[in-house]
C-alpha cells in the first residue's frame, strides 16, 4: 500500500488494495495507465486459440478454411474489447508481429526464407488485425453517436 492510499472498510473489513484486476475479460490497472499489459494478454489469448486449432493450421487443409478459422476464432481472441484501446505505434507493431508469425506458421514458412510479409499476406488473405481494430473502433464510436441522438 502506498503512503497516500486511504484504506477502505466495508462492514469493518478492510478491502484489499490491488494494483490491477481483470473484469469481464479486460485487465484494469490502478497504477499503469497504458494498455501494454492488456495488449500482451490479448496476444497471448490469440496464441492460445491458435494452438488449440493447431490441427487445422498445420494440417493439409485448404487456405480458405484456415482463413475462416483464423478470422472467426483467433482474430476475436486478439481483439476482444479493443474498442477502448488507444493503440500506440509499439502496440501496433506487437499485434502485427504476432499476426505475421501466426500466418507464417499457417503456411509452414520458416522466417529465414526470404518471403516478405506482403507475400505472406497475399497467400493467407486473412483480415489485418490493425484494420480490424480500427474498423471496430469506428463502429463502436458510431454506435455511441447514434445513442446520443436518441
TrEMBL record:
Protein name: Endonuclease-reverse transcriptase
Upper classification of the organism: Eukaryota, Metazoa, Spiralia, Lophotrochozoa, Annelida
Amino acid at each position: 500500500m502506498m503512503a497516500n492510499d486511504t484504506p477502505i472498510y466495508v462492514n469493518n473489513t478492510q478491502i484489499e488494495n490491488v494494483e490491477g484486476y481483470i473484469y469481464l475479460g479486460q485487465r484494469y490497472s490502478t497504477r499503469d495507465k497504458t494498455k501494454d499489459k492488456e495488449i500482451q494478454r490479448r496476444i497471448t489469448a490469440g496464441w492460445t486459440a491458435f494452438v488449440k486449432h493447431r490441427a487445422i493450421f498445420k494440417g493439409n487443409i485448404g487456405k480458405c478454411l484456415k482463413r475462416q478459422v483464423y478470422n472467426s476464432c483467433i482474430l476475436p481472441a486478439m481483439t476482444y474489447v479493443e474498442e477502448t484501446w488507444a493503440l500506440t505505434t509499439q502496440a501496433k507493431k506487437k499485434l502485427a508481429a504476432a499476426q505475421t508469425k501466426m500466418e507464417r506458421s499457417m503456411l509452414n514458412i520458416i522466417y529465414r526464407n526470404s518471403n516478405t510479409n506482403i507475400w505472406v499476406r497475399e497467400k493467407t488473405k486473412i483480415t489485418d488485425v490493425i484494420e480490424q481494430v480500427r474498423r471496430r473502433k469506428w463502429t463502436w464510436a458510431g454506435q455511441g453517436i447514434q445513442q446520443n441522438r436518441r
